[in-house]
Specification:
The complex is a heterodimer of chains A (255) and B (329). Chain A has helices at 7-23, 33-50, 55-73, 76-85, 89-96, 103-130, 138-165, 169-185, 198-206, 208-221, 226-254. Chain A has 255 residues and is mainly alpha-helical. The chains are: A mainly alpha (255), B alpha/beta (329).
Chain lengths: 255, 329
């Protein structure tokens, strides 16, 4: 009955998923082209209006927020991919091997690390061309990357769970989109919450994306980051505690 | 009891209202090839998936290599290899990457996994395609890679679920050679198939299942005897001589004393198939056809098809409510 989880097995399968991503680079559109387009659109279409004429000021505000929004949006693909993958024979192979049950799922989530790293390089790189500047130091930027990727890998388990439960890959997208859209707009990603009605502010305040974005802004632009980083990690733990077992159970039931 | 590599009793599995297995027993001696013969939907794949710990039976018990599939699935997985009906290879990975991945999941070091991959690719004649993605492989190559993947851990029990379905005849023979060499290495093979010919060519014992139940268990020899030896199929060159051909062949078969409703079957192509006990009858058939002046363009002796096997087995069972014509058609 020993079904020990071996981290090395998860890394082997993370490598498999990374090879698959590299073989079909269009899988990276949601962490490359999409944030670039959002940066351009929001900075130049709404930026002036939102921040009283200064597009640069809005860009400084927007970019850390957009990282949070992109993390939520691009979590959709892992659930979709797993949903499609699981119907293929290769998961039968994994199930017939003496490896922990969670290994194929954990491997897939770990491979996402690589996608989110790509997101940071692209978003901050392109942001720099547009005039974005880090106002803290490289160490804090590194911390910002670490916190965001931690959050992303925890958040991904929602998508994995939906992927295990949904009948088709299309359903995964529909369900995730319904959740991600209000989550990313009813937050401090694009604007300050202060102009919103009170009930909405209450939601924005507990929204995990708001905490992540506040932490990112503090780490990139300065200001006290500790509390927001703490809240973000608390959300990471909460998401993992709830959605990891749910996703695993969904996976086992599905076989 | 202890020398059984696979020992299953009373396996039952339902999917909703469909009863896939209705109490299947299987006993497979270590080091033998055991054929599970049955049509599509008979429950072959379900049985294999239960034995390979991919599915849980609703009732019944099974031990593989002495380990209970329900209580000790991890131990079972350590000693089995599974080749599914649909090749379980990763299309985006190369042949080498597929096999190295399996090796590393089986706790081989990277070097050992690479060496094992190279060895298997060589054995399965895939060395030239080792660096190509599996999606560019032909059907036969995918099957071979899939089989190679199930052998990485040198399993002592190997499940082959319809390993030759969809392969052309030449590739089928290649696959048979591979199966024979597996047993030569001491492994036990459980093979599912829809072809009596395949089971006959490979298996030491055959279990025939239909609608989730075992309807026969025997050696190939015994099974063939039970279903009445071989079949002779003759097609007249001139379709107008069909009636004469039937008369001639009826005379022969009644002379051999074989009776039964499947004695003579027409397949819609205008050829006639009769049951014969052996090839000693052939000279007589040829002589009578010549005497009657019937020229033929097909004259073949072969094993009964699965349809014919089922007709013989189920058609003679007492208390069988099934209408035989349904099975034959």
């Amino acid at each position: 009955m020993t079904r020990t989880f071996n981290p090395r097995h998860a890394l082997v399968l993370a490598k498999r998923n990374m090879i698959k991503i590299l073989r079909t680079p269009e899988q990276l559109i949601d962490v490359t082209l999409q944030p670039v387009i959002f940066l351009l659109l929001f900075t130049y279409v709404f930026g002036g209006a939102l921040s009283g004429g200064s597009q640069h000021a809005y860009l400084q505000f927007l970019l850390p927020g957009l990282l949070g929004q992109t993390i939520a949006m691009s979590s959709i693909s892992i659930g979709q991919n797993l949903n499609a993958d699981i119907e293929k024979g290769v998961f039968d192979r994994f199930r017939s091997l003496p490896i922990g049950r969670a290994v194929p799922l954990v491997g897939a989530v770990l491979a996402e690390f690589f996608r989110y790293l790509t997101l940071f390089v692209v978003a901050i790189g392109f942001g720099y061309i547009m005039g974005f500047r880090i106002e803290t130091d490289p160490l804090k930027l590194l911390a910002a990357v670490g916190v965001a990727i931690c959050f992303a890998l925890s958040f991904a388990w929602i998508s994995v769970f939906v992927g295990m439960k949904a009948r088709t890959a299309g359903t995964v997208q529909g369900v995730m989109f319904l959740m991600v859209l209000p989550l990313s707009f009813a937050s401090n990603v694009f604007v300050h919450a202060s102009t919103m009605p009170g009930w909405l502010q209450a939601f924005v305040k507990i929204n995990p994306l708001s905490h992540l974005v506040s932490a990112e802004r503090a780490l990139m632009l300065g200001g006290p980051a500790g509390a927001q980083v703490g809240w973000t990690f608390a959300w990471c733990a909460g998401l993992l505690i709830v959605f990891f077992p749910l996703a695993l159970r969904g996976y086992i039931r599905r076989s | 009891m202890t020398d059984l590599a696979i020992d299953a009793t009373g396996l039952v599995k339902s999917f909703g209202a469909t009863k896939a297995l209705a109490g299947v027993d299987l006993a497979v001696r270590g080091g033998s090839v055991h054929g599970v013969l049955g049509p599509n939907g008979a429950g072959k794949t379900t049985a294999v998936r239960i034995l390979a710990t991919l599915l849980r039976a609703d009732a019944g018990s099974a031990r593989v290599n002495g380990f209970d599939v329900r209580e000790q699935p991890a131990r079972v997985r350590q000693s089995i290899g599974l080749t599914g009906q649909f090749a379980s290879v990763d299309d985006d990975l190369t042949g080498t990457q597929n096999l190295v991945m399996i090796g590393q999941l089986l706790d081989l070091s990277k070097q050992a996994a690479r060496a094992r991959a190279a060895e298997l690719l060589e054995w399965f004649d895939l060395t030239a395609a080792a660096g190509k993605q599996a999606k560019h492989y032909s059907g036969g190559m995918r099957r071979r890679l899939d089989l190679a993947a199930s052998l990485v851990g040198r399993p002592s029990v190997i499940f082959l679920d319809e390993p030759t379905t969809g392969l052309d005849p030449a590739k089928r023979e290649d696959m048979w050679d591979v199966v024979r060499s597996l047993v030569g290495n001491g492994s036990t093979v459980l093979l599912t198939t829809q072809y009596l010919e395949e089971a006959d060519a490979l298996a030491d014992e055959i279990t025939v299942i239909d609608q989730g139940r075992v309807i026969a268990h025997d050696t190939p020899h015994g099974l063939k005897r039970a279903v009445g030896g071989q079949r002779l199929t003759v097609h007249p060159l001139d379709p107008a001589r069909y009636g004469d051909l039937v008369t001639v062949l009826s005379g022969i078969t009644s002379a051999t004393g074989v009776a039964g409703r499947d004695q003579r079957a027409e397949d819609g192509r205008g050829s006639v198939t009769v049951r014969v006990d052996g090839d000693e009858v052939l000279p007589e058939v040829v002589a009578r056809l010549r005497a009657a002046g019937i020229a033929t363009d097909e004259f073949s002796l072969h094993l009964p098809s699965l349809d014919e096997v089922f007709f013989s087995l189920t058609g003679t069972r007492s208390g069988d409510s099934r209408v035989p014509e349904e099975i034959v058609s």
